[in-house]
Amino acid sequence: MADNLARLGQIELFFPPGAAWNYSVSLDVLGAAMEQAAGKPLPQLIDELILRPLGMDASGFYVASADQLATPYIDGQPPRPMQDPDVSPFFELSGIRYSPARATRPASFPSGGAGMVGTAGDVLKLLEAVRTGGGPILSQASAASMLSNQIGELVVTTHGPGWGFGYAGAVLKDPAVAGSPLRRGTVMWGGVYGHSWQIVPDRETTLVALTNTAIEGMSGVFPGELGAAVAAALA
């Protein structure tokens, strides 16, 4: 983790803090800050503060054997099983590097932003705890802040106009402006191995889809159609 932070520390800021919003690896930095503040390794902190209180027994930073992991697939014609390492194009000028076996290597640094494995059931436990007020891991105020816009009128560059961002993910402020079929107030995010989730607070509904299809399952046709179908059912 120290090596990763040292590399990040050499990168100049794109803009003054608070002046704009941009996707980043800030959660890795936050994970390192948590370690320093608590004097404990991040996996131990997450286990004590989140996993055990919620009974998320199938989640963690590492697994004992690759047999515990679902086979990941990567976009292609046709889609194919992911290699280790592997790279998938993403946007026009960049790609995402994957290493599925990383989850079997405890020597790999515990990434606060993209370092854990788990099941859909466990993710649902976490999101439902947030949706229903935070107990037993958060105060009601903290849970509410995760589901409400925290960036004012700044543009969420990954989603565009009509969206805000809370401490959990993107928040739909105005479906008409966003051109979205989802309900106002929907909170959503995803993961580069092909995962997506939504919380629809006013309908007391949480949706989790862990597809292991990168990147389609995160930002392809499937999550859009799934979200639209759920929104239509909740109308």
TrEMBL record:
<feature type="domain" description="Beta-lactamase-related">
    <location>
        <begin position="3"/>
        <end position="218"/>
    </location>
</feature>
<dbReference type="InterPro" id="IPR050789">
    <property type="entry name" value="Diverse_Enzym_Activities"/>
</dbReference>
<dbReference type="InterPro" id="IPR001466">
    <property type="entry name" value="Beta-lactam-related"/>
</dbReference>
<dbReference type="InterPro" id="IPR012338">
    <property type="entry name" value="Beta-lactam/transpept-like"/>
</dbReference>
<protein>
    <submittedName>
        <fullName>CubicO group peptidase (Beta-lactamase class C family)</fullName>
    </submittedName>
</protein>
<dbReference type="Pfam" id="PF00144">
    <property type="entry name" value="Beta-lactamase"/>
</dbReference>
